[in-house]
Amino acid sequence: MRIWPAILCVALTACQQAKAPLATPETSFDGARAAPAEANIAHGERISWTLGCRGCHTPSLEGQRFYELYASNLTRDLAKYSDADIEHVLRTGVPHDGRDLWGMPSEIFQHLSDADMRALIANLRTLKPTGMPTQPPKPWEADVKEMIAKGQLKTAKDTVMQVKAIGPIDLGPPYALGRYITRVTCAECHGPELKGTPGDTPDLIVAGGYSRAEFEALMTKGILPNNRKFKSPLMGEVARNRFSRLTLHERDALFAYLKARAEAPQ
Fold it and tell me: Which terminus of the chain has a smaller tally of CB atoms within 10 A, N or C?
């Protein structure tokens, strides 16, 4: 009789299914899975500040000129993009018309979680067209042409591919949120491994010397310990305009990760 092997097979399958581990939730910013649409849109607005969108493209996202470049007027231009197009340009640095993009930090946006990406796009879809149309770029200056020729300045697409497989040290699940935050924020200036740029930005191992209170003052007010001065005022501005919008839980997680990274074998 063949019925017993069949029953045994069904029983074993059911047992295996019952013991199958649950999928680990994707690491995201706090509030990424807010159920009501309004809450999800609000989350998208918060991270649009934290990620720097409202720095380059202005607080109203109407765009502005940066030297030869022009940060596009998102309130007008995104009407030409589907949601998939928006995600594609953010993650790859390639817009729907295939042209080269410069200065777009897609090398960090490629690591944005799906939940955070959906919330960000949901918020962008609420924008009403305002401001002047996006202006064309100006011709490259001689020094910029030289940087491009030497490979010192790359397109967003090329930068994405260059650092795609590089990231800060993974210290395990307890530090996953802090590591995630560094990949989609700090890495823009301090590099994908957080080791900094010689003569420009420091290795974030320096965070190991901060107390939690000193780190809080830095991240929310842009104030260094003992009222030291920044080499560049940019970090102070970024802290006040972007990192101050992290939740307390997120700042705790970021500090814990950076502290553990500083104490890990180098």
Answer: N
Chain-wide mean pLDDT for the chain? 90
pTM greater than 0.85 (yes/no): yes
Q: Is 80 exceeded by the pLDDT of residue 21?
A: no
Domain 165-263 belongs to what topology? Cytochrome Bc1 Complex; Chain D, domain 2 (1.10.760)
**Whole-angstrom distance, CA of residue 124 vs CA of residue 119:** 9
Question: Do 249 and 30 contact (CB within 8 A), yes or no?
Answer: yes
Q: Is there a shared CATH topology between the 37-138 domain and the 165-263 domain?
A: yes
255 touches 243 (CB < 8 A): no
Confidence band of 24 (pLDDT split at 50, 70, 90): low
Q: How many helices (H) and strands (E) does the chain have?
A: 14, 2
Q: How many CB atoms lie within 10 A of CB 4?
A: 8
Q: Which pLDDT does position 151 carry in this prediction? A: 87
Is the pLDDT at 12 greater than 60, yes or no? Answer: no
153 CB-near residues (< 8 Å, 6+ apart): 102, 144, 147
Tell me the residue type at 59.
Answer: P
Q: Nearest to residue 47, comparing CAs of 139, 103, 109?
A: 109
End-to-end C-alpha distance for the chain, whole angstroms: 64
Residues 100-114: tens digit of each pLDDT: 999 999 999 999 999
Domain boundaries, the chain: 37-138, 165-263
With CA atoms as reference, report the closest residue to 188 among 212, 174, 169, 168. Answer: 168
